[in-house]
């Protein structure tokens, strides 16, 4: 995924909620004070979020000079200096928290995604994200997933059809739901969530573009892979964690969606330190 186009507005909002009418503590520093600072990553991580970090200081003070030592998608060793800054002390202090918040959050998503990608290395299966993202961070986290080696699923409700259990119940059947989708939105990709092998067979017969195998056990998942005459891409979902993801991939499914990589993340430990 390329960089999203809402970075500026995201940063604007972050600075508004943090700085408000002014940084009262930074006012204690002499206006002409200049400083150098480094940002240290205290743990192993995959970097994501440089553009947001840069935009924070662009909006706070364009005179701040930023020198990166890593690219988005790079693996960072523990205790590495990832970026250095030079500029007015007040500006560095005012932008610090917002800039770090973006990088520590997006790097957390990239890092966790990469852990899943690494676990299934050697298979033909891809790790997918979901819509279970932090509110307002959808595009940013989708970008971070790509930095970690994952694949983006649909962005929202507007760019792909995903017929789930409640849609099927309301429509009457999988077949009816797919027929309605084809009539109302021709040319749009259709995925169907199935919970039993019989539903999988119905989705195959109705020519779904992608079929989700939701909470299938491994044996039934293997059965679906082996009985897929139209070679419809299959996505496994439910019960996925770092302990189970490899065995799921080894069934031969094409995709594994993981909500955890965007919703259950621990921020990467970053700190900014002024040089003495």
UniProtKB/TrEMBL annotation:
It comes from the Bacteria. Signal peptide: none annotated. It is an enzyme of class 2 (transferase). Its EC number is 2.4.2.19. It catalyses: nicotinate beta-D-ribonucleotide + CO2 + diphosphate = quinolinate + 5-phospho-alpha-D-ribose 1-diphosphate + 2 H(+). GO terms for molecular function: nicotinate-nucleotide diphosphorylase (carboxylating) activity. Keywords: Glycosyltransferase, Pyridine nucleotide biosynthesis, Transferase. Residues 23-107 form the Quinolinate phosphoribosyl transferase N-terminal domain. InterPro entries: Aldolase_TIM, NadC, NadC/ModD, Nicotinate_pribotase-like_C, Quinolinate_PRibosylTase_N_sf, Quinolinate_PRibosylTrfase_C, Quinolinate_PRibosylTrfase_N. Pathway: Cofactor biosynthesis; NAD(+) biosynthesis; nicotinate D-ribonucleotide from quinolinate: step 1/1. GO terms for biological process: NAD+ biosynthetic process; quinolinate catabolic process. Residues 110-273 form the Quinolinate phosphoribosyl transferase C-terminal domain. GO terms for cellular component: cytoplasm. Involved in the catabolism of quinolinic acid (QA). Belongs to the NadC/ModD family. Hexamer formed by 3 homodimers. This is Probable nicotinate-nucleotide pyrophosphorylase [carboxylating]. The gene is nadC.
């Amino acid at each position: 995924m390329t960089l999203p186009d809402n970075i500026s507005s995201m940063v604007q909002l972050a600075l508004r909620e943090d700085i408000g009418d002014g940084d009262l503590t930074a006012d204690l520093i002499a206006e002409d004070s200049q400083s150098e600072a480094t940002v240290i990553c205290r743990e192993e991580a995959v970097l994501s979020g440089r553009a947001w970090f840069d935009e924070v200081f662009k909006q706070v003070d364009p005179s701040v000079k930023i020198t990166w030592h890593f690219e988005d998608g790079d693996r960072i060793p523990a205790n590495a200096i990832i970026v250095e800054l030079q500029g007015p002390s007040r500006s560095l202090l005012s932008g610090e928290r917002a800039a770090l918040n973006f990088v520590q959050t997006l790097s957390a998503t990239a890092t966790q995604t990469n852990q899943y990608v690494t676990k299934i290395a050697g298979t033909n299966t891809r790790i997918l994200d979901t819509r279970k993202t932090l509110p307002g961070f959808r595009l940013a986290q989708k970008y971070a997933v790509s930095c970690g080696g994952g694949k983006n699923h649909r962005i929202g409700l507007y760019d792909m059809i995903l017929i789930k259990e409640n849609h099927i119940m309301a429509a009457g059947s999988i077949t009816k739901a797919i027929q309605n989708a084809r009539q109302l939105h021709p040319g749009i990709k259709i995925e169907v969530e199935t919970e039993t092998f019989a539903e999988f067979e119905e989705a195959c017969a109705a020519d779904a573009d992608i079929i989700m195998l939701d909470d299938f056990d491994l044996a039934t998942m293997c059965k679906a892979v082996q009985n897929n005459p139209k070679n419809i891409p299959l996505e496994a979902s439910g019960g996925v964690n770092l302990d189970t993801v490899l065995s799921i991939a080894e069934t031969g499914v094409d995709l594994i969606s993981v909500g955890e990589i965007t919703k259950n993340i621990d921020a990467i430990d970053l700190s900014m330190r002024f040089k003495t």
